[in-house]
Structure formats: C-alpha cells, structure tokens
Design goal:
- The protein has about 300 residues and is mostly helical.
- It contains 13 helices and no strands.
- Helix 1 packs across helix 5, helix 3 packs across helix 9 and helix 4 packs antiparallel against helix 8.
- The radius of gyration is 19 Å and the shape is globular.
Length: about 300
C-alpha cells in the first residue's frame, strides 16, 4: 500500500512540476529571447544532473561510441528540439502547448515503427494513430483564410518540437546506452544547451542574462524543478512502473497546465480543444491497448 501511495505521489509531483513549466515559459518569454531562454534552462539542469551523477559515483563519462551517440542524439533532439516549444509558446497559450505534448507517445510509436525493427502495429493500433492526429487537428484548427497566422505557426512549431523529442527518445533506445540515466541526461543537456546557445547567436538573438526577478525565477524553476528534479522522478518511475505507465503522465500534465494557465494567466480553452485532447488520449489507448491490458491484468 505504501509503495502504491509513493508511486501515485511521484506521478502527481511529476505532472505538477511539468505542468507549471508552461507557466514559467510564458512568464520568462516576457523578457528573454526564446532560444536563449531554452538554453539557460538546460545549462542549469546539466550542471545539477552531472554533479548528482558524480556524487553518486556512477559511470558518468560517455567514453565509448554507443554512449557518445546516445548523448549526441539526446542533445540535438531531446534537448535541442525544445527551442521550437519556446518559440511557439510566444503565440500559443500554456495550456494549449501542454495539450499538444500529449501527442508525444503516439509520435514516439511512429518513429519506433521506422527505426526499431522489433516494433509492429496492428490495424487497431493504426486506427489509434489516425485518431491521435485527428485530435491534434481539432486542437490546431487551421484557418484557411489565415494559414500563416502566428497562432497556427506557433502550434506547428510545437508539433515539430514533439516530433524531435520523440525521435531523440527512439534514437537513444536504438543505440541502447549503458551510461547512468542521470549522467546521460546531464551530458545530453550540456550538449543541447551549447547547441541552443549556438542557434541563439546564429539567428541574431540579443544575449542577456535574466535581469528581472521574474525571468530569474522562471529559469531557476525550469532548470532545477521542471528539468533536473523532474527527470530524476521520471527515471525512477521508468524503473518501477515501466515506459507505458510512465508515459501516462503526458495526459496529466495538460490538465495541470490548463488549470494554471486559466487561473494565473487568464487563458481560455475551447470545448473543441478539450474534445481534441480526449480523441488523442483515445488514440493512445487503442495503440497501447495490449500493454494496458497486461498492466490491468
């Protein structure tokens, strides 16, 4: 019973930490350039995770080709792709940005089908994938009269971020690294942070340190709580409950983010957006129905 309570608490904590991250991004974007802001997030998290790995005396240096490849994939895709989230959230509400993240498990399955030979999908699973994209279509709702509007472009950028993060996860699974997970995350974030700083300079963003209490708090929250601590909880859940159950947090985060966005930022959410989110979740249940049945039984 105590173990179950602990797991539920970890799920709730992780969903809360990640749910509030969208609020922190919205607040930080008021004064920080988006890609530079993303880089700061992973700078902070990389230092904390690598110190944690060193303190725990784990195998923490990616000295071989397999681990180096995993770190590179993590840095470029798992971390680097998040630049699109920060750019997109300039015109997309925090709740909506979080809802778009719910496509991540389905997008991961699509990449796995292409890159992992052992992955297969049934006819029902294919229906689940299609439903997922129908749901996202309801969330995005492109306006034919304004296809290049900032709101639609922002949503598409966030979808690009989801695709990149999903690809990074599958690439890491494919190379099967032996590096400790905290070290793997730390090195990936270090590489990803440097990559984001390079992108920030190359696109002409003005370099500046967080100069206000609000921007400093946003960077600190994202780096410490929503990334370093959250990833440690995430990996703990992976070890205890497995990838499928842990992926369900993707459907708790939007609930937290939407409530926070409405209460703190005065954002609104439309009924069609909620319906789209539920359709995405239904698609996930169809895609993973056998694995879910094994857990239930």
């Amino acid at each position: 019973m105590n173990r179950r309570v602990t797991v539920v608490g970890q799920f709730g904590t992780l969903a809360t930490l990640w749910g509030f991250s969208f609020l922190a991004i919205s607040l930080g974007l008021e004064s920080l350039e988006p890609v530079l802001f993303a880089a700061y997030r992973y700078d902070v998290a990389a230092i904390l995770l690598l110190v944690y790995a060193l303190y725990n005396d784990t195998t923490w240096i990616p000295a071989d080709k397999t681990n180096a490849s995993a770190v590179l994939a993590g840095g470029v895709f798992l971390v680097g792709a998040n630049a699109f989230l920060f750019i997109g959230q300039q015109t997309v509400s925090s709740g909506l940005a979080a809802i778009l993240q719910s496509l991540l498990p389905i997008m991961t399955s699509l990449w796995a089908l292409r890159l992992l030979p052992e992955e297969r999908v049934s006819a029902v699973g294919a229906v689940g994938i299609v439903l997922g994209f129908i749901g996202v279509g309801l969330v995005i709702r492109p306006d034919p009269a304004n296809l290049l509007g900032s709101g639609l472009v922002g949503r598409l950028l966030i979808l690009l971020q989801v695709a990149g993060v999903a690809l990074g996860g599958v690439l890491i699974q494919r190379v099967n690294p032996t590096l400790d997970r905290a070290a793997l995350s730390g090195w990936s974030m270090l590489i990803g942070g440097l990559f984001l700083h390079t992108v920030s300079l190359s696109i002409g963003e003005t370099f500046s340190l967080p100069a206000t209490i609000k921007s400093g708090a946003a960077v600190a929250y994202l780096g410490i709580f929503a990334t370093a601590i959250a990833f440690l909880i995430y990996f703990t859940l992976l070890d205890v409950r497995g990838a499928l159950e842990t992926s369900l947090v993707s459907y708790l985060v939007p609930i937290v983010a939407t409530i926070v966005g409405v209460v703190v930022l005065g954002e609104s959410i439309t009924p069609l957006t909620i319906i789209g989110f539920m359709i995405v979740f239904t698609g996930f249940l169809l895609l993973k129905r056998r694995a879910i049945a094994n857990i239930v039984n």
